[in-house]
Amino acid sequence: MQLTFLGTGTAAPLFGRRPSSILLKNGDFTGLLDIGSGAVHSLAATNVDPINLNALFISHFHSDHSADMIMLLHSNGATPGKIRTAPLKIYGPQGLRTFIDGILKLFPETEPETYSLDLKENPQNEKIISNMKVDCFRTEHTVNSIGYRFRINDFEFVYTGDCSFSMELIHSCTGADMMITECSFADRKETADHLTPAYAAELAKEAGVKDLIIIHRYPQTLKEGVEHEISSVYSGRLFFPQDGQMISFGE
Ligand SMILES: [Zn+2]
Ligand SMILES: [Zn+2]
User: Fold this and answer.
1) Most buried of 146, 207, 225, 240, CB within 10 angstroms?
2) Bridge-based pairing state of the strands 117-121 and 88-92
3) pTM flag (> 0.85)
C-alpha cells in the first residue's frame, strides 16, 4: 500500500503546501483521502490518471478538503480523447449527497454523462475491494465530520481529517498500526476544532499506533519545530511528509 501526499497544507496559502489530499494505492485500486484544491493537477505528477480514480473518501466539506471535487468531475467528463465509463465511488459524511447535488447544479459541466456516481454517506464495514475494508468514525470538527479506519489485509490505519482531541477519538484510533492526523496550531494557540503538537502526540500515544504521519500544518507549525515536541511524548515512528512525497506501508 502506498500513500502519496498530494497536499499537506491547509486553507492558508503557502507555496509548496497545497490543501489536504492523499493518494492511496493498493494494487490496482486508487483512491483519494480528501480532495483539496490542486489535488487533481497534483495527480499529474503521479502515474494515476484522474479518469481512473476508483474512490474518494471525504472527511468533511471545508473547501481545503473538498474544493477539487469540482475539478475532478469536470476533468472526468471533459478530457479530450478519454471517456470515463467506470463508476466513481464517493464516501463522505452525512450531507454528501446535498454537497454533490450542489456542485452539479452550480457547475453543469461537472454532470457525469458516461459514468455514474456511487455515493455513500458514513460507510461502516464497507468492502472496497477484496482485501480492503473501511469504517468511518465521528470527529469533533464540524457538525458531521468523520475520519476513516482502513483495513488492508492485516494492516490497519486511520485518517482523522481535521479533528480535536477527545477520548472518543482515541477509542476510534486504538489498535491501528498507523495514523494520519493533523497538527494545525501551536500549543499556546489551540482552538476547539484542531490539534496542536501536544494533542497530536497524546492521541497517537494513547491510541498505541506504531507510525504517526502529521499533515495539515498551518505556517506557524511548520516554523516552530513541532517534530521535537511530538517526539518528546510519542515514541513511535514519525513522518512529516512534504507535498509529493510517497511512503509505502504494510508491504
Ligand atoms: Zn482543514
Ligand atoms: Zn476543516
Assistant:
1) 146
2) parallel
3) yes
